[in-house]
Automatic annotation (TrEMBL):
It comes from Stella humosa. The keyword Transferase applies. Involved in phosphonate degradation. This is 2-aminoethylphosphonate--pyruvate transaminase. Homodimer. The modification N6-(pyridoxal phosphate)lysine is found at residue 195. It comes from the Bacteria. Its cofactor is pyridoxal 5'-phosphate. Residues 64-306 form the Aminotransferase class V domain. Belongs to the class-V pyridoxal-phosphate-dependent aminotransferase family. PhnW subfamily. It catalyses: (2-aminoethyl)phosphonate + pyruvate = phosphonoacetaldehyde + L-alanine. One of its GO terms (biological process) is organic phosphonate catabolic process. Keywords: Aminotransferase, Pyridoxal phosphate, Pyruvate, Transferase. Its EC number is 2.6.1.37. The gene is phnW.
Protein backbone atom coordinates (compact mmCIF):
# COMPACT_ATOMS: atom_id res chain seq x y z
CA UNK A 1 0.00 0.00 0.00
CA UNK A 2 1.90 3.06 -1.18
CA UNK A 3 -1.02 5.50 -1.25
CA UNK A 4 -0.84 7.39 2.09
CA UNK A 5 -4.58 8.03 1.90
CA UNK A 6 -5.48 4.36 1.57
CA UNK A 7 -7.26 3.08 4.66
CA UNK A 8 -5.36 0.41 6.61
CA UNK A 9 -7.07 -2.39 8.52
CA UNK A 10 -6.82 -1.94 12.29
CA UNK A 11 -5.51 -4.99 14.13
CA UNK A 12 -6.00 -3.17 17.42
CA UNK A 13 -8.34 -3.54 20.41
CA UNK A 14 -10.38 -0.46 19.52
CA UNK A 15 -11.08 1.84 17.96
CA UNK A 16 -11.22 -0.80 15.29
CA UNK A 17 -12.18 -1.35 11.69
CA UNK A 18 -15.91 -0.74 11.21
CA UNK A 19 -18.16 -1.74 8.34
CA UNK A 20 -18.94 0.60 5.44
CA UNK A 21 -22.63 0.55 6.42
CA UNK A 22 -21.86 1.53 10.02
CA UNK A 23 -19.75 4.44 8.79
CA UNK A 24 -22.47 5.46 6.34
CA UNK A 25 -25.07 5.61 9.15
CA UNK A 26 -23.30 8.79 10.30
CA UNK A 27 -24.11 10.74 7.13
CA UNK A 28 -27.27 12.20 8.57
CA UNK A 29 -28.01 14.71 11.31
CA UNK A 30 -30.45 13.98 14.10
CA UNK A 31 -32.45 16.26 16.35
CA UNK A 32 -31.71 15.05 19.85
CA UNK A 33 -35.33 15.50 20.94
CA UNK A 34 -36.88 14.13 17.76
CA UNK A 35 -39.17 11.14 18.23
CA UNK A 36 -37.18 8.96 15.82
CA UNK A 37 -33.97 9.62 17.69
CA UNK A 38 -35.67 8.88 21.01
CA UNK A 39 -36.93 5.58 19.56
CA UNK A 40 -33.42 4.74 18.42
CA UNK A 41 -32.11 5.18 21.95
CA UNK A 42 -34.87 3.03 23.41
CA UNK A 43 -34.00 0.31 20.86
CA UNK A 44 -30.28 0.45 21.59
CA UNK A 45 -30.78 0.31 25.35
CA UNK A 46 -33.14 -2.65 25.01
CA UNK A 47 -30.65 -4.52 22.80
CA UNK A 48 -27.79 -3.94 25.21
CA UNK A 49 -29.77 -5.39 28.10
CA UNK A 50 -30.74 -8.37 25.91
CA UNK A 51 -27.07 -9.04 25.10
CA UNK A 52 -26.46 -9.93 28.76
CA UNK A 53 -29.85 -11.61 29.18
CA UNK A 54 -30.83 -8.87 31.62
CA UNK A 55 -34.62 -9.16 31.08
CA UNK A 56 -36.43 -6.63 33.27
CA UNK A 57 -33.88 -6.97 36.07
CA UNK A 58 -31.25 -4.85 34.32
CA UNK A 59 -31.28 -1.38 32.76
CA UNK A 60 -28.92 0.21 30.23
CA UNK A 61 -27.54 3.68 30.89
CA UNK A 62 -25.42 5.21 28.10
CA UNK A 63 -22.89 7.98 28.57
CA UNK A 64 -20.86 10.20 26.23
CA UNK A 65 -17.14 9.51 25.94
CA UNK A 66 -14.74 6.60 25.71
CA UNK A 67 -14.91 3.43 27.77
CA UNK A 68 -13.05 4.95 30.70
CA UNK A 69 -15.84 7.50 31.14
CA UNK A 70 -18.29 4.60 31.54
CA UNK A 71 -16.00 2.82 34.04
CA UNK A 72 -15.48 6.00 36.05
CA UNK A 73 -19.21 6.75 35.98
CA UNK A 74 -20.03 3.16 37.02
CA UNK A 75 -17.63 3.25 39.97
CA UNK A 76 -18.73 6.72 41.06
CA UNK A 77 -22.42 5.90 40.82
CA UNK A 78 -22.56 2.31 42.11
CA UNK A 79 -20.00 2.54 44.92
CA UNK A 80 -21.44 4.52 47.83
CA UNK A 81 -19.17 7.10 49.50
CA UNK A 82 -19.04 4.93 52.64
CA UNK A 83 -18.36 1.71 50.68
CA UNK A 84 -15.06 -0.10 50.33
CA UNK A 85 -13.94 -1.81 47.16
CA UNK A 86 -11.60 -4.71 46.45
CA UNK A 87 -9.90 -4.16 43.10
CA UNK A 88 -8.74 -7.30 41.30
CA UNK A 89 -5.86 -6.14 39.13
CA UNK A 90 -3.76 -7.84 36.45
CA UNK A 91 -3.05 -5.10 33.97
CA UNK A 92 -3.41 -1.46 33.00
CA UNK A 93 -7.20 -1.37 33.12
CA UNK A 94 -7.30 -2.75 36.66
CA UNK A 95 -4.76 -0.11 37.65
CA UNK A 96 -6.92 2.52 35.95
CA UNK A 97 -9.89 1.53 38.14
CA UNK A 98 -7.64 1.84 41.19
CA UNK A 99 -6.66 5.35 40.11
CA UNK A 100 -10.31 6.30 39.56
CA UNK A 101 -11.32 5.05 43.02
CA UNK A 102 -8.36 6.88 44.56
CA UNK A 103 -9.46 10.13 42.89
CA UNK A 104 -13.01 9.50 44.10
CA UNK A 105 -11.59 9.28 47.62
CA UNK A 106 -13.34 5.96 48.27
CA UNK A 107 -11.82 3.26 50.47
CA UNK A 108 -10.11 0.54 48.43
CA UNK A 109 -7.81 -2.46 48.70
CA UNK A 110 -5.97 -4.15 45.86
CA UNK A 111 -5.40 -7.77 44.96
CA UNK A 112 -2.88 -7.93 42.13
CA UNK A 113 -1.52 -10.76 40.01
CA UNK A 114 1.02 -10.56 37.17
CA UNK A 115 -0.17 -9.49 33.71
CA UNK A 116 0.06 -13.05 32.41
CA UNK A 117 -1.79 -14.56 35.39
CA UNK A 118 -5.58 -14.67 35.71
CA UNK A 119 -7.27 -13.46 38.89
CA UNK A 120 -7.78 -16.35 41.32
CA UNK A 121 -11.42 -16.56 42.45
CA UNK A 122 -10.57 -18.44 45.64
CA UNK A 123 -8.09 -15.72 46.60
CA UNK A 124 -10.82 -13.09 46.08
CA UNK A 125 -12.93 -15.12 48.51
CA UNK A 126 -10.13 -15.20 51.08
CA UNK A 127 -9.59 -11.44 50.82
CA UNK A 128 -13.31 -10.87 51.38
CA UNK A 129 -13.33 -13.17 54.42
CA UNK A 130 -10.36 -11.31 55.85
CA UNK A 131 -11.99 -7.88 55.51
CA UNK A 132 -15.72 -7.67 56.28
CA UNK A 133 -15.69 -3.92 55.54
CA UNK A 134 -15.37 -4.60 51.80
CA UNK A 135 -18.74 -3.95 50.15
CA UNK A 136 -17.81 -4.22 46.46
CA UNK A 137 -15.40 -6.03 44.14
CA UNK A 138 -14.32 -4.76 40.71
CA UNK A 139 -12.76 -6.93 38.01
CA UNK A 140 -11.82 -6.66 34.32
CA UNK A 141 -13.31 -9.46 32.19
CA UNK A 142 -10.69 -9.54 29.44
CA UNK A 143 -7.57 -7.53 30.43
CA UNK A 144 -6.55 -5.89 27.19
CA UNK A 145 -3.02 -5.31 28.51
CA UNK A 146 -2.05 -8.92 27.76
CA UNK A 147 -5.31 -10.35 26.37
CA UNK A 148 -5.80 -12.56 29.43
CA UNK A 149 -9.28 -13.79 30.28
CA UNK A 150 -10.29 -13.46 33.93
CA UNK A 151 -12.73 -15.99 35.46
CA UNK A 152 -15.60 -13.56 36.16
CA UNK A 153 -18.10 -16.41 36.61
CA UNK A 154 -16.09 -18.00 39.43
CA UNK A 155 -15.30 -14.62 41.01
CA UNK A 156 -19.02 -13.72 40.92
CA UNK A 157 -19.82 -16.90 42.87
CA UNK A 158 -17.31 -16.03 45.60
CA UNK A 159 -18.55 -12.44 45.83
CA UNK A 160 -22.26 -13.33 45.89
CA UNK A 161 -21.74 -16.11 48.44
CA UNK A 162 -20.46 -13.47 50.88
CA UNK A 163 -23.21 -10.98 50.11
CA UNK A 164 -20.86 -8.46 48.46
CA UNK A 165 -21.46 -6.69 45.12
CA UNK A 166 -19.57 -7.13 41.85
CA UNK A 167 -18.77 -4.46 39.24
CA UNK A 168 -17.33 -5.64 35.92
CA UNK A 169 -15.26 -3.79 33.33
CA UNK A 170 -16.39 -5.95 30.40
CA UNK A 171 -15.15 -3.49 27.79
CA UNK A 172 -12.83 -5.57 25.65
CA UNK A 173 -14.94 -8.70 25.26
CA UNK A 174 -18.47 -7.32 25.42
CA UNK A 175 -20.53 -8.71 22.54
CA UNK A 176 -18.02 -11.44 21.65
CA UNK A 177 -17.71 -13.49 24.82
CA UNK A 178 -20.85 -14.51 26.69
CA UNK A 179 -21.71 -12.63 29.87
CA UNK A 180 -25.11 -13.70 31.18
CA UNK A 181 -26.16 -11.69 34.23
CA UNK A 182 -28.73 -14.33 35.18
CA UNK A 183 -25.73 -16.59 35.84
CA UNK A 184 -22.98 -14.11 36.72
CA UNK A 185 -24.30 -12.24 39.76
CA UNK A 186 -23.28 -8.59 39.50
CA UNK A 187 -24.55 -5.08 40.15
CA UNK A 188 -23.16 -3.50 36.99
CA UNK A 189 -21.21 -4.04 33.79
CA UNK A 190 -19.46 -1.29 31.84
CA UNK A 191 -18.57 -1.41 28.13
CA UNK A 192 -18.36 0.82 25.06
CA UNK A 193 -19.44 1.20 21.45
CA UNK A 194 -16.07 0.80 19.78
CA UNK A 195 -14.86 -2.67 20.70
CA UNK A 196 -16.49 -6.01 19.87
CA UNK A 197 -19.81 -4.36 19.02
CA UNK A 198 -17.93 -2.68 16.15
CA UNK A 199 -19.38 0.80 16.50
CA UNK A 200 -17.39 4.01 16.25
CA UNK A 201 -15.84 5.55 19.39
CA UNK A 202 -17.64 8.10 21.54
CA UNK A 203 -20.20 6.15 23.55
CA UNK A 204 -19.93 4.11 26.73
CA UNK A 205 -22.66 2.41 28.71
CA UNK A 206 -23.41 0.69 31.97
CA UNK A 207 -25.81 -2.20 32.42
CA UNK A 208 -27.02 -2.08 36.01
CA UNK A 209 -29.21 -4.28 38.14
CA UNK A 210 -32.37 -2.23 38.57
CA UNK A 211 -32.64 -2.77 42.33
CA UNK A 212 -29.01 -1.80 42.77
CA UNK A 213 -29.13 1.44 40.76
CA UNK A 214 -32.39 2.43 42.45
CA UNK A 215 -30.39 2.73 45.67
CA UNK A 216 -27.63 4.89 44.14
CA UNK A 217 -29.17 8.35 44.26
CA UNK A 218 -26.64 10.89 45.48
CA UNK A 219 -23.60 8.58 45.28
CA UNK A 220 -21.97 10.23 42.28
CA UNK A 221 -19.11 12.67 42.68
CA UNK A 222 -19.70 14.48 39.38
CA UNK A 223 -22.83 15.72 37.65
CA UNK A 224 -21.89 14.60 34.14
CA UNK A 225 -20.81 11.14 35.40
CA UNK A 226 -23.91 10.55 37.51
CA UNK A 227 -25.47 7.49 35.88
CA UNK A 228 -28.31 7.41 38.40
CA UNK A 229 -29.36 10.87 37.27
CA UNK A 230 -28.80 9.95 33.62
CA UNK A 231 -30.94 6.85 34.02
CA UNK A 232 -33.82 8.61 35.82
CA UNK A 233 -33.82 11.42 33.25
CA UNK A 234 -33.87 8.97 30.33
CA UNK A 235 -36.67 6.94 31.84
CA UNK A 236 -38.72 10.07 32.45
CA UNK A 237 -38.00 12.17 29.38
CA UNK A 238 -36.71 9.61 26.86
CA UNK A 239 -33.78 11.96 26.30
CA UNK A 240 -30.18 12.44 27.24
CA UNK A 241 -29.46 15.01 29.93
CA UNK A 242 -26.75 16.70 27.84
CA UNK A 243 -25.93 16.79 24.10
CA UNK A 244 -25.83 13.17 22.91
CA UNK A 245 -23.21 12.01 20.35
CA UNK A 246 -25.98 11.64 17.77
CA UNK A 247 -23.89 10.35 14.86
CA UNK A 248 -22.07 7.87 17.08
CA UNK A 249 -25.42 6.61 18.36
CA UNK A 250 -26.81 6.22 14.83
CA UNK A 251 -23.71 4.25 13.85
CA UNK A 252 -24.05 2.14 17.00
CA UNK A 253 -27.66 1.33 16.13
CA UNK A 254 -26.50 0.06 12.74
CA UNK A 255 -23.56 -1.83 14.31
CA UNK A 256 -25.95 -3.57 16.71
CA UNK A 257 -28.17 -4.59 13.78
CA UNK A 258 -25.12 -6.11 12.09
CA UNK A 259 -24.10 -7.82 15.33
CA UNK A 260 -27.55 -9.46 15.53
CA UNK A 261 -27.40 -10.45 11.85
CA UNK A 262 -24.06 -12.17 12.46
CA UNK A 263 -25.67 -14.33 15.13
CA UNK A 264 -25.17 -12.11 18.17
CA UNK A 265 -22.54 -12.95 20.76
CA UNK A 266 -22.14 -16.54 19.51
CA UNK A 267 -21.67 -15.52 15.87
CA UNK A 268 -19.32 -12.65 16.59
CA UNK A 269 -17.34 -14.72 19.07
CA UNK A 270 -16.95 -17.54 16.53
CA UNK A 271 -15.51 -15.18 13.90
CA UNK A 272 -13.06 -13.68 16.40
CA UNK A 273 -11.98 -17.13 17.63
CA UNK A 274 -11.27 -18.11 14.03
CA UNK A 275 -9.34 -14.84 13.47
CA UNK A 276 -7.34 -15.51 16.62
CA UNK A 277 -6.59 -19.12 15.65
CA UNK A 278 -5.37 -18.11 12.18
CA UNK A 279 -3.21 -15.38 13.69
CA UNK A 280 -1.65 -17.51 16.43
CA UNK A 281 -1.06 -20.54 14.16
CA UNK A 282 0.49 -18.34 11.47
CA UNK A 283 2.73 -16.44 13.86
CA UNK A 284 3.87 -19.63 15.58
CA UNK A 285 4.66 -21.14 12.18
CA UNK A 286 7.03 -18.18 11.65
CA UNK A 287 8.67 -18.85 15.02
CA UNK A 288 6.92 -16.22 17.18
CA UNK A 289 5.83 -17.17 20.68
CA UNK A 290 2.72 -15.98 22.48
CA UNK A 291 2.94 -14.59 26.01
CA UNK A 292 -0.08 -16.57 27.16
CA UNK A 293 -0.90 -20.26 26.92
CA UNK A 294 -4.00 -20.89 24.78
CA UNK A 295 -6.17 -21.80 27.79
CA UNK A 296 -6.17 -18.25 29.24
CA UNK A 297 -5.97 -16.37 25.92
CA UNK A 298 -9.12 -14.43 25.01
CA UNK A 299 -9.80 -14.15 21.25
CA UNK A 300 -9.51 -10.35 21.41
CA UNK A 301 -5.86 -9.37 21.31
CA UNK A 302 -2.72 -11.52 21.33
CA UNK A 303 0.62 -10.60 22.93
CA UNK A 304 3.76 -11.88 21.16
CA UNK A 305 7.27 -11.87 22.55
CA UNK A 306 9.73 -9.70 20.64
CA UNK A 307 11.99 -11.80 18.42
CA UNK A 308 15.59 -12.03 19.60
CA UNK A 309 16.95 -11.53 16.06
CA UNK A 310 18.96 -8.26 16.16
CA UNK A 311 17.58 -7.38 12.71
CA UNK A 312 14.12 -6.99 14.30
CA UNK A 313 13.37 -3.36 15.14
CA UNK A 314 9.79 -2.89 16.34
CA UNK A 315 9.25 0.66 15.04
CA UNK A 316 10.46 -0.28 11.59
CA UNK A 317 8.35 -3.46 11.65
CA UNK A 318 5.31 -1.41 12.68
CA UNK A 319 5.83 1.29 10.03
CA UNK A 320 6.42 -1.19 7.22
CA UNK A 321 3.32 -3.17 8.18
CA UNK A 322 1.25 0.00 8.25
CA UNK A 323 2.52 0.88 4.79
CA UNK A 324 1.32 -2.54 3.69
CA UNK A 325 -2.13 -1.75 5.11
CA UNK A 326 -2.11 -3.24 8.61
CA UNK A 327 -1.98 -1.27 11.85
CA UNK A 328 -0.92 -3.38 14.85
CA UNK A 329 -0.85 -2.36 18.53
CA UNK A 330 2.35 -1.17 20.17
CA UNK A 331 2.68 -0.74 23.92
CA UNK A 332 4.84 -2.42 26.51
CA UNK A 333 3.92 -4.89 29.17
CA UNK A 334 5.86 -5.05 32.39
CA UNK A 335 6.30 -8.83 32.34
CA UNK A 336 7.84 -9.17 28.88
CA UNK A 337 9.27 -7.28 25.93
CA UNK A 338 6.37 -7.75 23.55
CA UNK A 339 3.94 -6.37 21.01
CA UNK A 340 0.27 -7.05 20.39
CA UNK A 341 -2.01 -7.85 17.47
CA UNK A 342 -5.79 -7.59 17.72
CA UNK A 343 -8.29 -9.91 16.07
CA UNK A 344 -11.51 -7.94 16.57
CA UNK A 345 -13.42 -5.52 14.34
CA UNK A 346 -14.49 -5.98 10.72
CA UNK A 347 -11.76 -8.54 10.09
CA UNK A 348 -12.39 -11.87 8.45
CA UNK A 349 -10.30 -14.98 7.81
CA UNK A 350 -8.96 -13.60 4.52
CA UNK A 351 -7.82 -10.39 6.28
CA UNK A 352 -5.92 -12.41 8.87
CA UNK A 353 -4.21 -14.47 6.14
CA UNK A 354 -3.33 -11.24 4.31
CA UNK A 355 -1.94 -9.77 7.52
CA UNK A 356 0.24 -12.84 8.03
CA UNK A 357 1.50 -12.60 4.45
CA UNK A 358 2.33 -8.92 5.04
CA UNK A 359 4.17 -9.81 8.26
CA UNK A 360 6.20 -12.51 6.47
CA UNK A 361 7.07 -10.12 3.64
CA UNK A 362 8.03 -7.39 6.13
CA UNK A 363 10.30 -9.73 8.08
CA UNK A 364 12.00 -10.84 4.87
CA UNK A 365 12.49 -7.21 3.84
CA UNK A 366 14.08 -6.45 7.24
CA UNK A 367 16.32 -9.50 7.06
CA UNK A 368 14.76 -11.08 10.15
CA UNK A 369 15.22 -14.83 10.04
CA UNK A 370 14.70 -15.80 13.68
CA UNK A 371 11.38 -14.89 15.32
CA UNK A 372 11.70 -16.80 18.57
CA UNK A 373 12.43 -14.76 21.73
CA UNK A 374 15.14 -17.30 22.56
CA UNK A 375 18.43 -16.27 20.92
CA UNK A 376 20.15 -18.65 18.52
CA UNK A 377 23.29 -19.72 20.38
CA UNK A 378 25.56 -19.80 17.33
CA UNK A 379 24.23 -16.62 15.77
CA UNK A 380 27.32 -14.60 16.73
CA UNK A 381 29.62 -16.86 14.74
CA UNK A 382 27.26 -17.40 11.81
C1 LIG B 1 -10.64 -0.25 25.99
C2 LIG B 1 -10.81 -0.62 27.39
C3 LIG B 1 -11.27 0.32 28.34
C4 LIG B 1 -11.62 1.74 27.99
O1 LIG B 1 -10.58 2.43 27.41
P1 LIG B 1 -10.86 3.79 26.60
O2 LIG B 1 -9.54 4.10 26.00
O3 LIG B 1 -11.33 4.79 27.56
O4 LIG B 1 -11.93 3.46 25.60
C5 LIG B 1 -11.45 -0.11 29.63
N1 LIG B 1 -11.18 -1.37 29.99
C6 LIG B 1 -10.74 -2.29 29.12
C7 LIG B 1 -10.48 -3.68 29.59
C8 LIG B 1 -10.53 -1.94 27.79
O5 LIG B 1 -10.09 -2.86 26.91
Amino acid sequence: MTDPNAVPLLLTPGPLTTSETTKRAMLRDWGSRDGRFVEMNVRIRRRLVDLVNGGDRFVAVPIQGSGTFAVEAMLGTMLPPDGKILLAINGAYGHRMARIVEMLGRAAVEYETAEDTPIDAAEVGRRLDADPAITHVAIVHCETTSGVLNPVEAVAVEVARRGRRLLIDAMAAFGALPLDVSEVACDAVAASSNKCLEGVPGLGFMLARREAIEACEGNAHALSLDLYDQWRFMERAGQWRFTPPTHVIAAFDQALTEHAAEGGVAGRGARYRENCRILVDGMRAMGFETLLPDAIQAPIIVTFHMPSDPAFQFQSFYDRLRDRGFVIYPGKLTVADSFRIGCIGQLHAADMHNALAAIAATLAEMGVTHCSPVPVARRATA
